[in-house]
Amino acid sequence: MKNRLRSTFSGDSVGKRALRGSALTVVGFGGSKVLRLASNLLLTRLLFPEAFGLMALVQVFMAGLAMFSDIGIKTSIIQNPRGDEPEFLNTAWTMQIARGVFLWLAACALALPAASLYDEPMLSQLLPVAGLSALIAGFRTTKIATANRHLMLGRQTVIDLGAQVVGIIITVSLAYMLRSVWALVIGGLISEVLRVVLFHLILPGIRNRLYWERETASGLIRFGKYIFLGTVAGFAINQGDRAVLGGYVSLSELGVYSIGMLLGTMPLMLGMALNGKIVLPLYRMKPPAESMSNRRQISRARRLLVTATFILNIPLAYAGIALIETLYDPRYVLAGPIVVLVSLAAVPQLVFNGYGGALLANGDSKRHFILLSCTAAAQLIYLFVGVNWYGLFGAILAPGLAALTTYPMRIVFVARYKANDHWSDLRFLALGLGLTGFACWLHLDDIMALIP
């Protein structure tokens, strides 16, 4: 048995590295989420739901700033033929630092308007300090992207988990002493500092230094302009619900919603991690358009990706309410039906998740932007209509409905790269929607509590 496992995971072929990378991504993701859940359980007993609501609003603004300034530096390193050259990497690193400085200054500038918009004075103090995390992250080494480019993820996974453990210990200790939302902010900053330092010291690769090559910078900007526009749309997709709900529900309700989303979106977060770290590099190494063999390998990788996320998502649909009732105190009981309904809404996103890599691996950031923009527009329409008519129930369903709406466009775009696999998509959709839909029917009375 030991020899069989060693044979399966050893070797330097693309397939073996993809297999090892997938295993490491799952281990890293699973470990990270277990640690985050343990931290969350401790913190919910030390802090009030309002603290999590405040942090949800802070994260909306920080994620928005990050997405509104993203020019796809990491993606460029992964897909660009020059992605291993020191001049290319150091220019990218210099641009990344400049972006971090811009993000922090923008967070400072938005602090007072944000506090006024949501009528929460604390935001004017929290945002400038939380924004320091973007400044610190700007100094992250390009060795991270290089490791992803070559599917070498072992050390990266260990560093991430180690920094998270230390950060959790510090955050919980601060929460015990301060009993304030500041514990979450300061703990996050310390975790980011640890990550930056450890990645620089431990990961193999070139030592980054400030450098500017005009040709490289121009190329990064050309590729990144549609990434930038796409991430503006990505903000609406990933953070739009919290931004909108912040104007409709209390901080306490927003905090409970955030707890439910933390657990309910775990399968989707796993799928996105696997897509970014494994499937995107595979599209670069094994372009489906080059041969039928490549196309079969990519299709198999995508099917395995969907299967892995379904294995996590479907049990959550049935056990979500029991998990919340077991893990959290009665103040968070409404998070249970949120987990169940999120499991249903996530199915289309889980099935279609792997297609974005086909566009980016081929340098087609323009179509990637168009797809994200249309998805964002559809999601915002569903979100506003859903919240006004059905409250949290409508908001939760919006992302899944948007993914279904733009699926035909997605298939047309990836077909030019021979990456479409619609028959598998339809089978997975039927299976996922059927099983999670039945779970929603079983818990219908609890789910109805989400409708005002």
From TrEMBL:
Keywords for this protein: Cell membrane, Membrane, Transmembrane, Transmembrane helix
Keyword RNA-binding attributed: no
UniProt membrane topology term: Multi-pass membrane protein
Subcellular location as annotated: Cell membrane
Transmembrane domains' residue ranges: 51-73, 97-116, 122-139, 159-178, 184-203, 223-239, 259-283, 304-328, 334-356, 368-385, 391-414, 426-444
Family annotation (InterPro entries): Poly_Biosynth_Transport (IPR050833)
Chief localization: membrane
Pfam families (UniProt xref): Polysacc_synt_3 (PF13440)
Keyword Cell membrane set for record: yes
Gene Ontology CC: plasma membrane
Protein family (similarity comment): Belongs to the polysaccharide synthase family.
Protein name: O-antigen/teichoic acid export membrane protein
